[in-house]
Amino acid sequence: MTAEYRQFYRGRRVMITGGLGFIGSNLARQLVEAGADVLLVDSLIPDYGGNLFNIDGIADRLRVNVADVRQQTTMNYLVRDRDVIFNLAGQVSHIDSMRDPYTDLEINCRSQLTILEACRYNNPKTKLVFAGTRQVYGRPESLPVTEVHLVRPTDVNGINKAAGEYYHLLYNNVFGVRACSLRLTNVYGPRQLIKHSRQGFIAWFIRLAIENKPIQIYGDGSQLRDFVYVDDVADAFLRAGASDACNGEVFNVGGDRAISHRELVGILLGITGAGSVEYVDWPPDKKAIDIGSFYADSSKFKGATGWRAAVPLADGLRCTVDFYRRHLNRYIGEEERTEPM
Amino acid sequence: MTAEYRQFYRGRRVMITGGLGFIGSNLARQLVEAGADVLLVDSLIPDYGGNLFNIDGIADRLRVNVADVRQQTTMNYLVRDRDVIFNLAGQVSHIDSMRDPYTDLEINCRSQLTILEACRYNNPKTKLVFAGTRQVYGRPESLPVTEVHLVRPTDVNGINKAAGEYYHLLYNNVFGVRACSLRLTNVYGPRQLIKHSRQGFIAWFIRLAIENKPIQIYGDGSQLRDFVYVDDVADAFLRAGASDACNGEVFNVGGDRAISHRELVGILLGITGAGSVEYVDWPPDKKAIDIGSFYADSSKFKGATGWRAAVPLADGLRCTVDFYRRHLNRYIGEEERTEPM
Prior knowledge:
Largest interface: A-B, 28 and 28 residues
CATH topology of the largest domain in chain A: Rossmann fold
CATH architecture of the largest domain in chain A: 3-Layer(aba) Sandwich
Number of strands of chain A: 12
CATH superfamily of the largest domain in chain A: NAD(P)-binding Rossmann-like Domain
Mean pLDDT of chain A: 94
Strand content of chain A: 15-25%
Radius of gyration of chain A: 19 Å
Strand order of the largest sheet of chain A: 3-2-1-4-5-6-10
Largest sheet of chain A: 7 strands, parallel
Oligomer: homodimer
Number of helices of chain A: 12
């Protein structure tokens, strides 16, 4: 029997910004499955993660609108009949944000105002679920991190994502545009960008292992993270979008246990039967914004919605490796395929 | 004998953004007195608080450069030889920020990146002191509010000021551009804009009292605030600018005690011997972003620098009333002087 929060989406008009990206496209699969009327909005900016292959097999059951969320008049139009908006568009590289803070500001901060103003004036009855990030906490003072931990980001990306999140809560509280934020930890799974290494190390590690190359771990690899499979994250978005108890709140959404980089790579190499590991010194630009160990306590969200991270890490990694092995050429440009596999 | 932190400024090249505004111009007076080489940068945007009369009497002892802090190339040039930068430029109206969030974003958030990037590439050895605000805390969970209270702003202005503050800490921590932030509570004193009511109620109350008009208090006037005289705030900026112990930190800077709106107006009317009070219902737009009672604990800053709020409220109000009585025509446009005085 289909769960109630999934039945909620039958015939429901939803929109996903960043819908051709990693999390957006996996969420789209579940929404299509639930019978929703799905509109994906994506700018397809090169290197940002949008990929038409991500909707392979479901492309005829949804609509794609190529647009930039920074474009006010376009957003005014697109939001107007949407019941739920999953707001996932963004620039996710911490390193890029330090090199070019203005672009990060435009995409992660100003664009949220564009979407929220569009809703305020054109569809105030909609519901927004924002893709927040653990990055807003910065270097944690205590572990596991709960939502009462201070927001103290250590990079420009984290600051702009924090502002974008605050805007959502504000529009919920002041203008009655219902909104909440899921602060995602380390999400992994099929359909993540692996063309370059600037969108999270886990996808990059998977690519290196598949290509039988050495994986570099900075320092001794003892720092901890929690990892959450993308299907579990998509499920979290569905639950938050269907629950008015979530309005005006922020929630951690992370994996069930903390594991070290060293252990993660061990599990990964065991699955791939390829690749190797190499311990190297921290590059200075990455060390400057590193946050040490981090893992989140997601019990607030579990309590509010009944969600849990259902997919064990080894299973999730196995599915991910399998996916990329089958579709590597859809995620790595031809120009990059000259290296030995 | 001059205090050490004041001697620090003798011959020191300093810059004040928003230098023709309320706090900036009062700070400029103390810096000129301390023998600093003072450069004021101000955009003189109408209605934002910049006023050339604010430097009456010291204009020949400093330099004024009319410029907008959003202009990157201009800022690149202006910061290059400044030892200390007091970064006070901003849009301060909470209500305006809700009507036009984009302008507030540009002025309070993006402009901070402009200044910090200018320093990063052209003068990384400078020291910045940012004018933060109690508004970043939003509606307080407990009183008095310390710096460990969650940042949870209730209006767009507060969000953008929070982001601007985070940028300063980030540039301190990552790029070594020394910076700290003073989270100011309710500052009052001479040279504040009183042409309209959107820059803080206290200056507006003073104007109404002087003009012998009724002062409207929303609700029953029981909500508490702490008030700090502008000379004490200027002193706080001097201390922070001279202290490397402040780098990378945020500090509350507020008045010594919490008093109600009702009591404040009572004291004010006693001083002016004019004006009256009127209790009215909250306007909905103001109620929506109201934060209830607020007063700050400034002991972290006191401990770090030895600062204290030296001017008692009644004395500060008396000086302020006296100032505006003498110079009212410099702060209220001719078009507004047609009403009975």
